[in-house]
Design brief:
The chain has eleven helices and 21 strands. The chain has 431 residues and is of the alpha/beta class. Bound molecules: 5'-O-[hydroxy(phenylacetyl)phosphoryl]adenosine.
Length: 431
């Protein structure tokens, strides 16, 4: 609690005054410097001075991913290029990547946000941070790197992949903190087991896992196999990178760095704001970004806001685990289903391993969903009948929980492809 910065435990009324002042300044700058916002704000008939309370946020125009693409590469910048000191990009599934830029001030903001993030896990001097997020155009590597240096920890900038080298570094350099995607954390846990090591042979204490959806079942698996506390961290390139929100050790949702990023939840269809507790699309407004200010960015991520006080002392609201994206919903014979729901159902069955792929096909007019999931070693050792029986159980469970009939194939342990960054769980072959 003593480690919290003033802003993290600021009384709500004071925080909201700060947010409103920053929002006004942001709108004034965006209107002055970014043609897209100038036009949209004019069309919406809103000026900075019209913003009397945070409720006026809803009068501002939205920004969507396509705006970044249309303005590729530098059209949304609010500063000349000579004030930019860093450029990152995130590759989408189609077309041009999204390019994001930072001034020196933005790097400072980001470093500060990431330092706060790491302090949520009590990371500081004496800690060794194995940073296995990708370095490069992806924001994960450098985002964590700067934050870890700021809190005085020793960073091992190992980046993603090269699992054997990761293992050697974990052992020899004595990492106490692990940063990577949750799927890669599991992969490392397997590598640790394969090497005949046990978690007690390592010094890991806490991990910051994010950049992709995961479930409580995955958290349990990671925590027990690596013997650390697994914290969920959320962020996205368009807004800054990692550092938008992170769990505290209470692990009841991720505190949003609300002095820097203003969150809202809207109905993805009507775009009307939803009340606290309701699940909808997360929309974020950057309050202090210089190079790339963003008004009401539609993240496509589905979650809810919990404004209840947290025992950790932070007054910042929390967002729940991301349960899906508006664009990753699968429609299987008319039933809407998110991959995370399937993961949740799968991991209720102790004989399956947290490794799966969803394959969608269209046979004649009907969609079929195949779930390929790894069985635990004991089931595989028990033979083909045991594997088939497990598949039948999984199939029943998925039907009970989600209401869809899936074809289930249980495959032997360690046979599905592992990822070093974001896992690809869905193969949609429907054309
Ligand atoms: O993934 C930034 C990041 C790096 C976050 C390291 C956390 C740790 P992008 O590549 O732009 O940025 O992808 C952003 O990833 O809109 C979500 O759909 C997803 N995502 C990020 N964190 C989580 C999370 C980085 N904790 C997109 N849970 C976002 C679920 C997440 N999904």
């Amino acid at each position: 609690m003593n480690d919290l910065t003033t802003v993290e435990r600021m009384p709500r009324a004071e925080l909201e005054r700060l947010q409103l002042a920053r929002l006004r300044a942001l709108v004034a700058r965006a209107a002055e410097r970014v043609p897209l916002y100038r036009d949209r704000l004019r069309t919406a008939g809103v000026r900075a001075d019209d913003l009397r309370s945070l409720a006026d946020l809803r009068r501002l125009p939205f920004t969507v991913k396509a705006d970044f693409r249309d303005a590729y590469p530098y059209g949304l910048l609010a500063v000349p290029l000579d004030e930019v000191v860093r450029i990152h990009a995130s590759s989408g599934t189609t077309g041009k990547p999204t390019v994001v830029a930072y001034t020196r001030g933005d790097i400072e903001t980001w470093t500060h946000a990431m330092a706060r993030t790491l302090r949520a896990g009590a990371v500081g001097p004496g800690d060794v941070v194995q940073n296995a997020y990708g370095y490069g155009l992806f924001t994960g590597g450098l985002g964590f790197h700067y934050g870890a240096e700021r809190v005085g920890a020793a960073v091992v900038p190992i980046s993603g992949g090269f699992t054997e080298r990761q293992l050697a570094a974990l052992q020899d350099l004595g990492a106490t903190v692990l940063c990577c995607t949750p799927s890669y954390a599991l992969h490392l846990a397997e590598a640790v087991e394969d090497a005949g090591l046990e978690p007690k042979d390592l010094r890991l204490r806490v991990g910051f896992f994010g950049a992709e959806p995961w479930t409580e079942g995955m958290r349990d698996a990671i925590e027990s196999r690596l013997d650390l506390m697994a914290l969920n961290i959320y962020g996205l390139s368009e807004v800054i990178g990692p550092g938008v929100s992170v769990e505290c050790p209470e692990r009841r949702g991720m505190h949003v760095a609300e002095d820097l990023f203003l969150p809202e939840i809207v109905d993805p269809q009507t775009l009307e704001p939803l009340p606290a507790g309701a699940t909808g699309e997360l929309v974020l407004t950057t309050l202090t970004k210089e190079a790339l200010p963003v008004l009401r960015y539609r993240t496509r991520d589905l979650t809810s806001i919990d404004p209840e006080a947290c025992p950790c002392g932070r007054t910042l609201v929390r967002i729940g685990r991301i349960t899906g994206r508006t664009d990753d919903m699968l429609i299987v014979r008319g039933v809407n289903v998110y991959p995370s729901q399937i993961e949740h159902a799968l991991l209720q069955i102790s004989d399956v391993a947290p490794q799966y792929v969803l394959v969608l096909r269209r046979d004649s007019a009907l969609d079929t969903l195949e779930i390929r999931v790894e069985g635990q070693a004991a089931v595989a050792a028990a033979g083909a009948d045991a594997m088939r029986a497990l598949a039948a159980r999984v199939r029943r469970r998925v039907h009970e929980v989600i209401g869809i009939t899936a074809e289930v194939t249980v495959v032997p342990p360690r046979t599905l492809e592992r990822s070093i960054g974001k896992a690809r769980r869905v193969e949609d072959l429907r054309g």
